[in-house]
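Annotated sample (chain length 276).
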Amino acid sequence: MDDAVEGAEDDAFAQNRASWDQRVPVHVASEFYDVEGWLRQGRGPRPEEAAALGDVSGLDLVHLQCHFGLDTLAWARVGARVTGLDFSEPAIDYARVLARRAGLEDRATFVCANVYDAVGALGPQAFDVVYVSLGALCWLPSVDRWAAVAAALARSGGRLFLHDVHPLSDALADDELGVEHTYFEEPDPFVDDSGFTYTDGSYSVSMERNFSWNHSLGEIVTAVITHGFVLEHLEEHDWTSFARFPWLVRRDDQHYVPPAGRPRVPLSFSLRARRL
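Output written by the structure step:
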């Protein structure tokens, strides 16, 4: 990577980090995450993810780009030893608070670092499961570099599990089923000055600008295979866990789906692979 590209990438990460730092308290207080309900009800992982990964009792699981740790700690609730990593210091600070409140601090570690620096930040340890949840890959300029990190963190025989927004969904316009953004990974990021956040709640920030990158499904799968994983499962879903489009409707299982009469399109996908 030449100096100009590296400098532009560093600037984009710095802006995104400042933006996410300001979003943390909004997300923590939102009905979308429902932290108090999560604590009170003892919720575990999403049922679809738990079915795909199976029993994780006693396994070492690392969650890359963990935000404030809710999904990370859900796996601790079903017996995993978890490590969450995120580049936002306020997010990591709250994740530690949440671990204490949930009584899971003995099974949870949280580290503040850029995902591309995860190997150095976490030290010489390997994991049975490398887990990545919704809304992660779009903040990274290179999916190949991400896959290299995942491979370096996974033990031989360990698994990678990715559940993320479908790249076609990210390429579509917000109001209609028309392509508005690139489907493929491009050198230059998409610049968003809307200040949009996917949760409810009072929201006023000074750091509105975000930089993001799309990655095609083929690019993601190829990166995973190139870095020593064997693909075991790939499924495209016509649902997602947040209101990506204003015309989606919410089902009783808290999935958002197209209403009757609209075409079904892939809104999210899940991938499971095993490290050679």
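Annotation: The domain at 3-275 is CATH 3.40.50.150 (Rossmann fold).
Annotation: The chain is about 35% helix and 20% strand.
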